[in-house]
Amino acid sequence: MRTLFFILFISMMFISCSYNNRGKFVITDFSKDTTFQVKTKSSSPTTLWLYIKGSTNDTIMINEVKTKVNPGKVDSLQMDEYYPDFSIRFKHFKATKGKIEVEYYLP
Q1: For residue 47, what is the domain's CATH number?
Q2: What is residue 79's predicted lDDT score, i.e. its pLDDT?
Q3: Three-state SS for 5?
Q4: Is 9 inside a domain boundary?
Q5: Which one, of 34, 23, 43, lies nearest residue 83 by Cα?
Q6: With a cut of 50, which residues of the chain have pLDDT below it?
Q7: What is the pLDDT of residue 51?
Q8: Which DSSP string corresponds to 9-74?
């Protein structure tokens, strides 16, 4: 009986996870600032998670937070977010070259 409840619980966890609240984009053009408009189906968003990986030759800004991305390292940023539709703003700041991948998750 416990096994049945455990399987039911795990199944509900997977069903409740929404893949519409995740996404990613890649930035390779460091000559200009970019804004990404994101639309999700989250009913009550509270936190925005950003996972950033790749490499840059200097500091960048994502949603007004300065960071430098080192090869092989994943940086994560947690931000307050109260709307299912939001913007992710990339500014090249001091960086002139690199490639980063930004994955977002809005639980």
Answers
A1: 2.60.120.380
A2: 84
A3: helix
A4: no
A5: 43
A6: 4-6, 8-18
A7: 92
A8: HHHHHHHH--GGGEEEEEE--TTS-EEEEEE---SS--EEEEEEEEEESS-EEETTEEE-PPTT-E
The owner of tokens 């090249």 is: 92
Contacts of 63 (CB under 8 A, 6+ apart): 50, 77, 79, 88, 89
Domain, as residue range, for 99: 21-105
What is the three-class DSSP state of 92?
coil
User: Tokens standing for 69?
Assistant: 């991305």
The reported pTM is: 0.72
CA distances from 35 to 4, 10, 27, 64, 90 (A): 47, 37, 11, 12, 6
Residue 15 lies in a domain: no
Which residue is listed with tokens 């940086």? 75
Quote the pLDDT of residue 15: 42
Which two three-digit tokens encode residue 46? 């509270």
Tokens of 74: 């994943």
